[in-house]
Amino acid sequence: MNRQQHIHSDTPAQALHIVVVGNGMVGHHFIEQLRQQDTNAKITVLCGESRLAYDRVHLSEYFSGKSADALALTTPEQYQTLKIDVHTNAWVNHIDVDLKTVSTESGITTQYDKLVLATGSYPFVPPIPGHQQEHCLVYRTIDDLERIAASAKVSRTGVVVGGGLLGLEAANALREACLETHVVEFAPQLMGVQVDAGGGRVLKDKIEALGVQVHTGKATEIIEQGTSCRYRMCFKDGGMLETDMILFSAGIRPSDQLARSFGLETGERGGIVVNDYCQTSDNDIYAIGECALWQGKIFGLVAPGYSMARVAANHVLGREGAFSGADMSTKLKLMGVEVGSIGDSHGKTPGSFSYTYESQSKGVYKKIVVNNDESMLLGAVLVGDTSKYDTLLQYCLNAIELPANPEALILPSSDNAVPALGADALPCSAIVCSCHNVSKGDIVVAIDEGNDDIAAIKACTKASTGCGGCAALLKSVVDTELVARGVEVKKDICAHFAYSRQELFHLVQVGRIKTFDALIQQHGKGHGCEVCKPAVASILASLWNDFVLQPDHIGLQDTNDTYLANMQKDGTYSVVPRVPGGEITPDKLILLGEVAKRFKLYTKITGGQRIDLFGAQVDQLPHIWEALIAGGVETGHAYAKSLRTVKSCVGSVWCRYGVQDSVKQAIDLENRYKGLRSPHKLKMGVSGCTRECAEAQSKDIGVIATENGWNLYVCGNGGMKPRHADLFATDLDTETLVAYIDRILMFYVRTADRLQRTSVWLESLEGGLAYLQDVIIQDSLGIAHELEAQMADVIQRYQCEWKTAIESESSRKRFRRFINSDQADPSIIFVDERQQIRPATELEKRQLETAEE
Amino acid sequence: MTLCELTRDDDSTVSTQWFEVCGVDDLVLNSGVCAMVNGCQVALFCVAASAELNTQSVQLFAVGNDDPIGKAAVLYRGIVGSVDDHFVVASPLYKQRYHLSTGDCLDNPDIAIPTYPAKIENGRVMLKMGEGV
Ligand code: SRM
Ligand SMILES: Cc1cc2nc3c(=O)[nH]c(=O)nc-3n(C[C@H](O)[C@H](O)[C@H](O)COP(=O)(O)OP(=O)(O)OC[C@H]3O[C@@H](n4cnc5c(N)ncnc54)[C@H](O)[C@@H]3O)c2cc1C
Ligand code: SF4
Ligand code: FES
Fold it and tell me: Distance, in angstroms, between B49 CA and closest chain A CA?
């Protein structure tokens, strides 16, 4: 400690010596900025932590597997190349403003010309009696994370004290570590800084639905020994909560001890006072980042810190630039819940008023705050849906005049909705990336200099390389600018083929190409990839319908197609036999039960009216299918992009309202189109009357019985973006119905993009529904006959792939788990739940492992 | 349960040895198979070294079978392809791609899988790996 060590200067005497205290994100950014502009300055960094600067913003990713090295923003070698003299574990405890020296606890003393304090902040721990125990931790540094991870291993329950942004991030980390997780918040709502009471309420509901228990309005009085857990927290209102660990995330405090002790001006509630050039009350000392107090404000985000770093670097070198505050808007995803906060989110501006939209069922809350004549947007709160964030932010930051009906900005889209603010509506001064202060103008310049893709623009402007929050906006600015310059935005399927899926389909069809190798030799380059191989496999299957496991095709298939089953999260598979139309005999039902029992499989009724058997190991699959096929059951193609199910209602045979036999129709359709490989999966439904119990209007092909025949609906979708099917034709007889469906499906197979459902396909077809009706009903392209013939060919080549697979010795060989051993896969472990198996969680696996040892 | 945490082939710290794994016939061209070697699950990929399908010029790669992101032992069931001039496998679970020769993950620079030297000798597939891992 008392060993004195002086740093010798070997740079010319006139070079400025700049000493930086703290090597957090902002201190590091300052160094980079300074070095870029001045290669001579002598720079010394005194870094209090044992590690050089790392990415605190993405700290939580440590829990999802990111290593400390991966979080690093620099390395000792890089600093060496930049000629930065850096000392780690160098905690500064003394400044002499007269002699212009700083000293560290470890005994280093150095002189400075300019001193930069970038000491950041530290977590505030409320002085609750009992807060200093072993498993009471904070969340700020990598060392903290290591302590949390160690504690989580020996804990079952964890409590986060503080329900702000960081507290919720910490709660997510505990949840991912498989702890029962609670959040205790003193205020009556979560994230009080960013969102208002209404938003806080919706946020709380959503977070609780994810299994985190939220306790608001709770003041902890004491932490005592617990009975069922390590500790017990007692609340002021008499309640209590038992937990094995406690994480404090109750706010941050600026690290301003140096300023306080050595005569620099600090704020009443902390923070080192700085002017617009980030100078403290001593002209040769600067403060930047979370320790600095500018106009009474501390900025707890990285982007304003980076701005301060730029301003201070410029000022030190005698260049222009001043700090003028920063936008504190944020958009984030906490445990999958989207939250956005823009500008004056609490509506504190005098005369402002607000519009609010809330959907309890959807868990969405949106509010906008506008000025008194409703011309400008002042702020916004978004919970559960931040899709309008970019648009709103641009309105707010660039003072763009609001449309006449500003409420349309937050209402669910309807016909009079305001369209999203396109990138072309933005002024050139609009900041696209606030982390790196990149404006739309900077991006335009970069494009003019010849950078014509996102990667190149990211590399030269640094846009979107900070928090990443601007990625979507950056892409839309770049795309619009490129299109405006007449650059074609490429539709190539991947790097191996300069063609769209539709073009490839034509090449295969016209050239009668039968294998991937032949196609890539004639029309592509390289060896293919996970994008083009399955796409080509699907095209080959649509056209020629060969056995998918024949040697030429085997390496092309997605794993589900290769093993003719659906891979689950633990590497086991699910088996879905076909149950056409949802009709099943008691014998087949018993067979499914018996097979499930014999192979110890988990069983569940699917959303598609059939039965899924889960937990099959790869080597069991052929045996399972032998048993199923012997009982007359076929493959259900749940693993393939092809026809899944045709859902039926019971129809006229039993139902008193039914007007046609919907079950028979569903079974016939399912048997006709089963095995048809298509760009994406296909689903159908047949209802026996307009009551629509089969939900046919949510399917790719929907059929609804009428007194006179069938109404045909097309291109409906459930899933991520539901779409009601369009009525395509009415009162068809069965023969016409089937002819139309043949044509529609084949036309889709030929012209859709890879992984494009019929709903998206129809919307992308120029001319839409009317065009499709022209092609299919009026035969405007003269291909109706060809489409039907092609479908007939595919139907005639149908085979139950599982039947072919179990009959072929070489196919069966593929299902060996290990080529050199008969042992079972030791990584697969099940536990019981509700009398069935389920995959063990990571935590359970670890526990079982330790129990074994 | 043994999850293998082998570092790259690093002769200085672990003593290594060649293991005989299986016959060439057990490999599947342009696709993967899995072997249990020395207590570790190893994914073996055999790819045609040129786009001309010529079985004489195949290249053999051996990598760890554990998917570090999906956390399941499944990599041998991924699709093999190329990125620039390198062979890669895409995890069947969440599609991250790994260089077959270096083990580096193309989609996440912080992650890599172990790789093992492999060769074909007299029709047998041989693999080099540390002892007692
Ligand atoms: C098993 C099942 C859930 C269940 O237990 O009920 C299921 C399971 C999966 N669905 Fe589904 N979906 C199941 C019915 C549905 C339904 C309901 C229906 O079919 O009536 C829908 C909404 C209807 C629709 O598709 O329009 C549905 C919409 C999706 C989507 C979203 C598609 C979209 O266009 O947005 C995906 C993702 C995708 O395909 O890219 C998906 C993907 C999946 C995957 C493949 C996810 C995956 O990659 O692992 C799951 C396969 C698990 C497996 O091994 O079988 N699943 N999925 C259902 C199987 C039905 C069947 O018998 O074949
Ligand atoms: C979990 C987490 C998530 C976050 N997420 C976001 C986000 O999504 N978006 C966003 O914009 N911001 C986020 N932040 C905030 C962001 O990380 C900070 O704004 C930023 O790191 C501040 O940088 P800084 O350099 O000012 O301070 P710090 O990063 O705290 O660095 C200060 C450094 O100085 C050192 N130091 C202090 N005193 C001394 C001394 N006397 N001598 C020597 N060294 C000293 C400290 O040890 C520390 O290493 C997050 C923060 C955390 C903890
Ligand atoms: S909704 Fe479908 S994809 Fe999502 S978890 Fe359920 S089964 Fe899987
Ligand atoms: S705004 Fe953070 S990276 Fe662009």
Answer: 9
Return the H-helix or E-strand segment holding A115: strand A114-117
pLDDT for B66:
95
Distance from residue A369's CA to the centre of ligand 4 (Å)? 24
Other beta carbons within 10 angstroms of residue A749's beta carbon come to 23
pLDDT at residue A156, as a whole number: 93
pLDDT digits (tens, 9 = 90+) for A293-328: 999 999 988 889 999 999 999 999 998 889 988 888
* Predicted local distance difference test score (pLDDT) of residue A10: 47
Q: Is A424 strand, coil or helix?
A: helix
Atom 6 of ligand 1, residue of closest alpha carbon = A606
Backbone angles phi, psi at A220, to 5 degrees: -80, 130
Contact criterion met (CB below 8 Å) for B4 and B34: no
Distance from C-alpha of A265 to C-alpha of A280, rounded to nearest angstrom:
7
Judge whether B127 and A87 are in contact, CB under 8 Å: no
Burial string for A668-698 (b: 16+ CB within 10 Å, else e) reads: bbbbbbbbbbbbbbbbbbbbbbeebbbebbb
Residue A604 CA: nearest ligand 1 atom is: 5
- Check residue B9 and give its pLDDT: 45
Task: Tell me the pLDDT tens digit for each residue of A384-423.
Answer: 888 888 888 888 888 888 888 888 888 876 544 455 566 7
- Residue B35 CA to residue B40 CA, distance in Å, equals 8
pLDDT over 90, % of chain B: 49
A47-70 per-position pLDDT tens digit = 999 999 999 988 888 887 788 888
Distance from C-alpha of A166 to C-alpha of A221, rounded to nearest angstrom: 22
Q: Of A55-59, A406-410, A573-577, B101-105, where does mean pLDDT reach its minimum?
A: A406-410
Instruction: Please name the residue of chain B whose CA is at the shortest distance from the CA of residue A70.
Output: B110
3-state secondary structure (DSSP) of residue A821: strand
Atom of ligand 2 nearest to the CA of A92: 42
Q: Report the predicted TM-score, pTM, of the whole model to 2 decimal places.
A: 0.54
Residue A853: per-residue pLDDT: 65
* Tokens read off for A532: 């083009």
pLDDT in tens, B19-61: 999 998 888 888 899 999 989 999 999 988 754 444 457 889 9
List, in sequence order, the alpha helices (H) in A640-783. Answer: 662-673, 734-751, 758-764, 768-773
Which two structure tokens, joined as six digits, stand for B50?
């040129």
Cβ contact A167:A160 at 8 Å: yes
Question: For residue A489, what pLDDT is reported?
Answer: 64
Q: What is the biggest distance separating any 2 CA atoms in chain B, rounded to whole angstroms? A: 41
Residue A468, pLDDT > 70, answer no
Cα distance between residue A832 and residue A810, in whole Å? 35
Closest Cα to residue A562, out of A577, A541, A548?
A548
Give the DSSP letter string of A337-375.
Answer: EEEEEEESTT--STT-EEEEEEETTTTEEEEEEE-TTS-
Which atom of ligand 1 has the smallest separation from the CA of A607?
6
A850 touches chain B (CB under 8 A): no
**Between chains, do B69 and A826 touch, taking CB under 8 Å as contact?**
no
Q: Which amino acid makes up residue A74? A: T
Q: Chain B: give the shortest CA distance to residue A618, in Å.
A: 10
| ipTM for the complex shown | 0.68
Alpha-carbon distances, residue A766 vs A306, A703, A729, A771 (angstroms) = 47, 25, 20, 7
Q: How far is the CA of A204 from the centre of ligand 4 (A)?
A: 27
Q: State how far the alpha carbon of B58 is from the alpha carbons of A528, B29, B30, B45, B78, in Å.
A: 16, 8, 9, 10, 18
Cross-chain residue pair B92–A842, CB shorter than 8 Å: no
d(CA A804, CA A629): 11
pLDDT value of residue B14: 53
CA of A173, nearest ligand number: 2
